[in-house]
Each structure stands twice: as C-alpha cells, then as structure tokens.
Specification:
Helix content: 10-25%
Structural class: mainly beta
Largest sheet: 5 strands, antiparallel
Shape: globular
Distance between the termini: 23 Å
Number of strands: 9
Oligomer: single chain
Bound molecules: zinc ion
Radius of gyration: 17 Å
C-alpha cells in the first residue's frame, strides 16, 4: 500500500465527525471489495452505542418486467442516524456535501432523473440497528493531484460510498444507499 493511501485511509472524513469509526473485516456488511483502497467501518455514537434509527428519502421505483410490474423501494441520501440510546441525531452522509463530486463542486446527488418533487425524509425501518459504511480512494493518482493543488483534506474526496443497516435481532445487512461519488 502506498504511503498516500495509508495516510488517506487513516484519516476520518469530515462527514463522520459526529461518530466513532471502528474498522471491520466482516464481509457480510458490504458488497464492496475488501481491498486497501476501501475503508470498511462500523459507526458508533460517542455515548458508546452502536444502535441507530436510520432515516433517508424513500423512493419507490416501478420496473417493467416481461409479464408484470415490480415495485422496489430505494432510499436516497441525505442519510440521518439517531442514536437508540442517547437520542443524538446526526447527518451521516449527504451526496450534495460529501465525497468527490460535492467536494469537486459537481454533485450528482441521489435524485432520480425525471423526478421533480422532493422526497420526504422517512425512517427506513421501525427498529434500530447496526450501521456499516464503506468508502474508497481508488485512483490514487487523482489524490496525488489534489495534494499538488494544495488541497488540505483529500480524505473528504472519497469516490464511492455505501451505507448498510442490520436491524437489531437480525444478522443480515440491508443496503440503505450506495453511490459512485464521481
Ligand atoms: Zn448515543
């Protein structure tokens, strides 16, 4: 692993300022690769709790299959977490503010194309659960360029983001949101 990659992955991106991050090797938390460019963490509240209620913008998408239509539910950022123990509410990820696109001033966000209305912020599940996050720094030469340009916070320019959720009392991590940030 390059020294730059070590430095990048050792720093906490600013969007997680309200959380403690603990590295995980649990492959069930993520569909993203477990490689040096990818950081896999569990989120903890400063109070020590690892259980949160998760809220995001719910979007129902209808897919036309050959003989029937299928509706799938997607959750779009920004994603907020509320600690199940102390009640602290924090923003975990906003595609318009965090990651390569937003830092580079070109946010694409989560709003599906062709959709005009604002999506309401809703609690994704009734119960709290554990939250895992993966973010990555894939094209290391891009980060070398950022540093040459004098950027002081290259760790905030991660290029993918995924947040998964495991409802208390269950073992399966469910995808809440994933994004190519560039
Ligand atoms: Zn708490």
């Amino acid at each position: 692993m390059s020294d730059l990659l070590k430095t990048l992955t050792a720093k906490k991106p600013s969007c997680f300022k309200d959380f403690e991050l603990v590295h995980t090797n649990d492959r069930s938390t993520s569909v993203m690769p477990f490689k040096p460019e990818y950081v896999h963490v569990m989120l903890y509240c400063p109070c020590g709790s690892e259980h949160f209620f998760v809220s995001a913008h719910k979007y129902e998408d209808t897919i036309n299959l050959f003989f029937f239509k299928k509706t799938r539910v997607l959750f779009l950022g920004p994603v907020y977490l509320e600690c199940a123990r102390c009640g602290k509410e924090s923003l975990a990820f906003d595609p318009f503010r965090h990651g390569w696109n937003s830092e580079g001033d070109h946010p694409t966000g989560y709003k599906p194309s062709g959709l005009d209305e604002e999506l309401a912020l809703t609690q994704c599940y009734d119960k709290p659960g554990k939250v895992a996050v993966c973010y990555s720094y894939q094209g290391i030469e891009n980060y070398e360029d950022l540093i040459e340009e004098g950027i002081q916070n290259p760790q905030d320019f991660f290029d993918t983001f995924e947040l998964t959720f495991c409802i208390e009392g269950t073992t399966k991590f469910l995808n809440i949101t994933s994004d190519e940030c560039r």
